[in-house]
Amino acid sequence: MEVIVAVAACVVTPLVYRSLRYHFYTKVNCWFCQHDQRVPFEQQNSFICASCEQYNGFDESGGYNRKIPGQHCVVAVKPTRRFCTSNMKGSGSNGLCDNCNRQQEIILRRIAEFEPSDDNHWNEEVEIYRYKLNKAYPLCVRCTFVAQDKMQQEKWLHFGCECSCKGQY
Q1: pLDDT tens-digit profile of 80-107?
Q2: What does the DSSP 8-state code read for residue 84?
């Protein structure tokens, strides 16, 4: 009799756990801005960050686990803005706010002062250093959109719609 109860408990416990698990929230961390938030369990690998509004959902290879429309070429008369205009005034004509311009100056100055530990691997070392600096001195959300918009405009000017998604539409 005790064996039957033990076997039943071993069978029922995982089933109860799985059925109840979907009713609770789980803590997730945004890959882009490192913001922690709670989302329903079934959305732990497919959610939009409440802080930076970026989609977080990745497959085993590191790509998105669903199609993101903004990543594909769309033929347009002119590029469209995806953010509201802000009262933030930039010191330069690049569109970045004063704080982000200062942080970019710090990054550029530190890269200019960079000394590799091995001159034969300078490119690899400077890219790792640049990555760490960009993590330490990130752009604000608004300026990230400005920079992405600027890169998209440059891509459009130089390549037209000859990007990697050619022929998908």
Answers
A1: 554 444 445 555 578 889 999 999 999 9
A2: -
Which of 64, 62, 71, 138 has its CA nearest to residue 100? 138
Q: What is the mean pLDDT of residues 46-68?
A: 86
Q: Which residues make beta-bridge pairs with 36? A: 29
Q: How many Cβ atoms sit within 10 Å of the Cβ of residue 156?
A: 16
Last residue of a domain, one of 47, 66, 85: 66
Clarify whether residues 55 and 112 are in a common domain.
no
What is the span of the domain harbouring residue 24? Answer: 1-66
Domain-terminating residue out of 66, 83, 99: 66
The upper half-sphere exposure of residue 78, i.e. CA atoms within 13 Å in the direction of its Cβ, equals 1
DSSP for residue 59: -
pTM over 0.70, yes/no: no
Which element (helix H / strand E) includes 56? strand 55-56
Is 97 in contact with 142 (CB distance < 8 Å)? yes
Task: Quickly tell me which residue has 């600096």 as its tokens.
Answer: 133
Q: What is the mean pLDDT of the chain?
A: 79
